[in-house]
Request: fold
Amino acid sequence: MKNRFKTILTSGLILISMITMNAQKQKMENTALLIIDVQNDYFPGGKMTLEKPEQAAENIRKVLDHFRKNNLPVIHIRHISTNEGATFFLPDTDGAKINNWVLPQENEKIITKHFPNSFRETELMNYLQSKKIKNLVITGMMTDVCVDATTRAAFDLGFGNTVIGDATATRNRELNGEVINAAEVQKSFLAGISALGNLYAHIINTKDFLNGK
Reply:
């Protein structure tokens, strides 16, 4: 009797696990991961070091591994500075290379941009349409510039957006002589794009995202 009960219990747990996995898979259909500007200049030794970029990159890598494991589309956005006076992400420099934390695989799309908005004068929109992508999971750097600009543009173009908050990073800012701490900048911009009932994006942390919440 005990063995029979254990068999039934095990079978039930397997069935629940399969149902959960199928539900998560359906939830992620027509969804792509955007990894924005995770490039060497944002890391220690680079020309525009952010606050705790390795911590954000580690979380981005966890999300990336999840997408790879489930054979979901991944898009790497790489910024190359072409504007006069630019000091980082300069063409043909090590600083402009995608960081080792998230090096693209052969089957992953790389799109080069020259503006904060990843859709501006790039092939991103056409590529997403060709893959029938309707929802974006957005990660990357910097939170208040390229991540923010891309998320707002994606909403205007009709995409449903999820931003992994702890898989983004920025740095201290200055306004009228006052230094605004990076952590405050981070929270303010994430709060802004999730205002009015997650208007531009739903904000979630890496752990909850990977747990299917």
